[in-house]
Amino acid sequence: MNNFSLHLATKVLFGQGQIAHLASVIPADARVLITYGGGSIKRNGVLDQVHSALKNYTLFEFGGIEPNPTFETLMKAVEVVHNNKINFLLAVGGGSVLDGTKFIAAAADYVGETWDIVASGGKSVTKALPIGAVLTLPATGSEMNAGAVISRKETGDKQAFHSPYVLPRFAILDPLTTYSLPPRQVANGVIDAFVHTMEQYLTYPVDAKVQDRFAEGILLTLIEEGPKALKEPENYAVRANIMWSATMALNGLIGAGVPQDWATHMLGHELTAMHGLDHAQTLAIILPAIMRAKKTQKWEKLLQYAERVWGIDRGTEDERIEAAIKKTEQFFQQMGAPTRLSDYQLDGSSIPALIKKLEEHGMTHLGEHGDITLEESLKIYQSAR
Amino acid sequence: MNNFSLHLATKVLFGQGQIAHLASVIPADARVLITYGGGSIKRNGVLDQVHSALKNYTLFEFGGIEPNPTFETLMKAVEVVHNNKINFLLAVGGGSVLDGTKFIAAAADYVGETWDIVASGGKSVTKALPIGAVLTLPATGSEMNAGAVISRKETGDKQAFHSPYVLPRFAILDPLTTYSLPPRQVANGVIDAFVHTMEQYLTYPVDAKVQDRFAEGILLTLIEEGPKALKEPENYAVRANIMWSATMALNGLIGAGVPQDWATHMLGHELTAMHGLDHAQTLAIILPAIMRAKKTQKWEKLLQYAERVWGIDRGTEDERIEAAIKKTEQFFQQMGAPTRLSDYQLDGSSIPALIKKLEEHGMTHLGEHGDITLEESLKIYQSAR
């Protein structure tokens, strides 16, 4: 096991009805800005629940935080913060609202060029407004981690930053809020959480048995519950298991003390940026391709994955690994995400341009060994056609 | 899944050499009281490491916190705190040092009768000195939870209290510090962590898949690594896996949103109090007896435990359950803890007195269903002869 530092400081209130307890976790004298996205929280009653729980508070609202939240939009929210002496941010939504709110929190009292928050990767952040979260879309884990991805229209940048100051103070996870999600978002969330887990699991063994078993537990849960969520959208237990899996998949717990990969995310990001594919769709395409391309390097963990997650224990080692990759593809397909570029009407002609983008973004040595070079990425994209 | 609130706020620094980073987690102007037990930390060099990491701090020491820490001893430490204007407590040791230090922290500025901290179960605590921990004995999970068990010689009381104010701010877990533990303490720690996990797992299903898989992951790790720790005391990976398992077993994570039992601990406590058996020895005796006595109530989880933890999937359901109980007993025996009262030269003649003690302590409705009455406890003790 590698050395690690882990601080899971976000307080979690989990379960139906927990939104009603918001006042127990926000200071009574707070001037609260409620941040949200496209307005689904108005239609499904979540915003009403928030207002009702906080009826004695001074509340403001900022809606319209887009998927892949932009600097341009978020700076308008910073203005609202300044104009109204906001001292608490309550993000109500999914990963994009959470990520955007983290930026607003860091930007509120930031001295200097605000974009430096992102450009510095978060290192320049020395304080931030306190944030709380009411999660409505299980997927990114942003509700219990200190990271955010922010885009900038003007320059076409899309970049992550991390700072302990923007870790949410609390996260309210009520599975009922996820009943009204469109199936595609449900599926995307399950795939995203699955691949977050794989990025921290499918590397090489460091004899970290608890982390491995926890990761396998999350994968097994998502495999069992993901398809059920599509068939039985109002099955509470299913929704609850998915919601808790997604938070656990990226709050730092399973990644503590183990190598991490993240190449699937990096190669996927370029597909989203260039072709507008959903983030989860890109993961469903790239992960199996990387599993095959890095088979030798990931051999031992692939065998462990085959046996413990898919129950595959017959055949040669190579056959078991290939069977596990096929099972992974079938799972993504079952969740409605095809696993080939051609399934999305992409013939591979943009691959050189994708590689150029990877190079521009400094993604020249990816993976847990840093051995996924541009040449290797080219092969991976090609094998995914 | 049941509703839950979970706050894992302790920052963890895990791995060899982490003690050297103590200054990064204690305020520079702190006046620190280092608390410890019988002095093994002087012999194994851990205290020297602490001093060397904190050479720029104003340090005080309080040793001699006994196993089952007493009010009488701890009140002497409170005096040291007052006399020296201590504003930070650094517990260096195992569960007893941790628990004792939590009491000192709560008692330091307590207004009123100090024993009320314990008598109120911690409810009367409204503040406490900050605590940090350097763990040297993986077992109780006290380094990452808000509970403590305190004894009082004068009255013979032994009682738990819980307060969020005494949750350690940080815990340093360096597996190297555990190399010099006597085998019996290693074994006891593994059994304690195993049974902590079982108390939160072996109840009835509430469709909490992540929690179940995490609990099973801890159990599997302890089963694999426990015996190895006895055979290869300087195997770092083994020590690391046990240390992380023990913390995860009782920091709230696997118990969040699921029913809990704790009857094994309660019946075991009386055996320790009356006969001086090690805590872990009592657990090794009582758990298998409870598994048999409550077989019907725990049927589904027993089958799941048999299959997922011991790989038992053949035979009638009853046979599988009995096989899993036998495996559990063999595991405890393998760790050096026999599983019958008679193995400890107890013939059962004290059972009526044990039941009387349970009654005195209000332990009349134990277990996840509250159906382990005194009559039932009597049968459990008898079946464990």
Report on this model:
Two copies of one chain form a homodimer. Chain A contains 14 helices and eight strands. The first copy, chain A, has two domains: 11-177, Rossmann fold; 183-383, Dehydroquinate synthase-like, alpha domain (Up-down Bundle). Chain A has a six-stranded parallel beta sheet, with helices on both faces. Chain A has a two-stranded antiparallel sheet with strand order 6-7. Chain A is globular. Chain A starts with a strand and ends with a helix. Chain A has helices at residues 40-43, 46-53, 71-83, 95-107, 116-119, 183-201, 209-231, 236-249, 263-275, 279-293, 299-310, 317-334, 351-360, 374-383, and strands spanning 4-14, 31-35, 58-62, 88-93, 131-135, 147-152, 157-162, 170-173. In chain A, 46% of the residues lie in helices and 12% in strands. In chain A, a hairpin with a 4-residue loop joins strand 6 and strand 7 (157-162). By secondary structure, chain A is of the alpha/beta class. Chain A binds chain B through residues 1-9, 11-18, 207-214, 216-218, 220-221, 224-225, 237, 240-241, 244-245, 248, 256-257, and chain B through 1-9, 11-18, 207-210, 212-214, 216-218, 220-221, 224-225, 237, 240-241, 244-245, 248, 256-257.
Briefly summarize what is shown:
Chain A has 385 residues and is α/β, with parallel strands linked by helices. In chain A, 46% of the residues lie in helices and 12% in strands. Chain A has 2 domains: 11-177, Rossmann fold (3-Layer(aba) Sandwich); 183-383, Dehydroquinate synthase-like, alpha domain (Up-down Bundle).
